[in-house]
Amino acid sequence: MRFTGTSNYVATDDLKVAVNAAATLRRPLLVKGEPGTGKTVLAIEVAKAFNAPLIEWHVKSTTKAQQGLYEYDAVSRLRDSQLGDPKVHDISNYIRKGKLWEAFTSPETPVLLIDEIDKADIEFPNDLLQELDRMEFHVYETGETVKAVNRPIVIITSNNEKELPDAFLRRCFFHYIKFPDPETMQSIIDVHFPDIRRDLVREALNIFYEIREMPGLKKKPSTSELLDWLKLLMHEDLPADVLRSRDTKKLIPPLHGALLKNEQDVMLFERLAFMARRGE
Hints:
By secondary structure, the chain is of the alpha/beta class. The protein is built from 13 helices and 9 strands. The strands form 3 sheets. A 5-stranded parallel sheet has the order 2-5-8-1-9. A two-stranded antiparallel ribbon has the order 3-4. The protein is elongated, with a radius of gyration of 24 Å.
């Protein structure tokens, strides 16, 4: 099977090559890119395209690598022993399987998403090196070794919040999702809003890319935020003329809360509008 994109996901040629290369090598695909560029959705769509089960492990700052393998609930076992529960004699009753265990024992080849790996501690990727390389791990409490029935397709996402260890990077196939150019963005919009007015999209894209290129902007709007903005513009049935207008009193685009997500960027636009008015 080869990944060629889906009806719901516009994949560039180089992204398709990366997915298929990682699937062929059965090496983890490490996907980096700006937030909102479709990294997480990629794993969902790859699973659909391959008709494979999707197993999602969303990493947080407190997540430990061991949680992906299994956790031993010693507290519950101690409580049950005090209550005289007979299941206390079987330690396997207190082993909680993690996402890697679930992926390794899946009867079908699954797609395993390890989402936002850079949120965790710097040692998190290193702690998974052997398990992802050998596709097996040992359960010390029961003495069993869990081996992958079918080597999963592993997709790992990162927002580049911190550098990942070289030893981890060597074991991955890497791809950086570039921010979509206007032509690709038009294709993405067509997938989500096939009936949207072309004149509205044209003016909205002009404003969107102007905002992204503005110097001093703290957070550039992403693809997902553009889609939210377009959805609001359609709901309000705003004419394209409203966007086309370059009225110096209205430099901030309508419904800008979908695009500008902090007060510094809003104030930047307000200062520009004030300076424009003074220059009239």
